[in-house]
Amino acid sequence: MAKAFAAPEAGAKFEEIQFEVGELGKDEVEINVEHCGICHSDLSMLNNEWGFTQYPFVGGHEAVGTVAAVGDDVKTLQVGQKVGLGWHSGYCMTCNQCMSGDHNLCASGEASIGGRFGGFADKVKAKEAAVVPLPENIDVVSAGPLFCGGITVFNPMVQFDVQPTDKVGVIGIGGLGHMALMFLNAWGCEVTAFTSSDSKKEEAIKMGAHNVINSRSEEELQSVAGKFDYIISTVNVKLNWDAYISTLAPKGRFHFVGATVEPLDISLFPLLMGQRSISASPVGSPVNIAKMLDFAVHHDVKPVIEQYSFNDINDAFERLESGNARYRIVLSW
């Protein structure tokens, strides 16, 4: 038997439950969870904002722990190995996307918290291909948020060949944005943070921003018109997108990773005349997750976390929902 914290219905408090882990598949790995990050996506799933949550809901897709058992066909992982599990718990391994190394784009990819129990438990199962070994010397307690928030901001840096000489902007200095500052600074870029919070200015500079722009100031936005080669938006609210696109240099890219659900109001001509691009992406492939983890260790990139006991999961979710967390929350057994 395993223990988990489950919400019985949309918006409900988490309650402790017992469940059977079930028989281990030949290509599956069972993980003893030690720590698990809480992502805003867990909150969205708890409230069934995306319409496919199944209850009882056991969230958690930023889990790290130790391999407890492996299936008969598992070849790359061993019992006792430290590993992590992110948004996906499995892939089809046969489609064009999987065969090309873009597993995160697999149409049949299995969500770790979609139709199955995730990492808010002391045990979790996943396919071998989705489980990524932790490199030596990584801080295990803070590693969980890298498996969703971290790879979400790191993946487009690799996918779109962001250069260390690029001038880049980060919109929103929160759970995703603070990691984007760290990664882009370590990548070698000149980094500008866009934030509406004066209280985050000093923190943004400590985390890697060379400059900070008050996103509520039209004058400050105009002062950087045509400057940026790459801007990443990590917010999940509607903004004046045209104002930000005007700060892109010719051939610049505006990239969305924050899951805003409202339609984008964007004018065509600023894109057309400057040959600018708009794009978006979800998490990343296991290969890029491993690459990100190695990069994080090499450059000492660690998410800023607040740590809670699993027994205090409801307090942790209240903290997340308040918007005051600095900057990711991690549950620990």
How would you sum up this structure in a few lines?
The chain has 333 residues and is of the alpha/beta class. The chain contains eleven helices and 17 strands. The strands form four sheets. Strands 3, 4, 5, 8, 9, 16 and 17 form a seven-stranded mixed β-sheet that branches.
Structure description:
- The chain is of the alpha/beta class and 333 residues long.
- The protein has 2 domains: 2-148 and 283-332, Medium-chain alcohol dehydrogenases, catalytic domain (Quinone Oxidoreductase, Chain A, domain 1), CATH 3.90.180; 151-280, NAD(P)-binding Rossmann-like Domain (Rossmann fold, 3-Layer(aba) Sandwich).
- The protein has helices spanning 40-46, 96-99, 140-143, 149-159, 177-187, 201-206, 218-223, 241-245, 268-274, 286-298, 313-322; strands at residues 2-6, 15-19, 28-38, 63-70, 82-85, 88-90, 110-111, 123-127, 131-133, 167-171, 190-195, 211-214, 228-233, 248-256, 277-280, 305-309, 328-332.
- Strands 3, 4, 5, 8, 9, 16 and 17 form a 7-stranded mixed sheet that branches.
- Helix 8 (241-245) links the parallel strand 13 and strand 14.
- Helix 4 (149-159) crosses helix 5.
- The longest helix is centred in the C-terminal third of the chain and has 13 residues, at 286-298.
- It is globular, with a radius of gyration of 20 Å.
- It starts with a strand and ends with a strand.
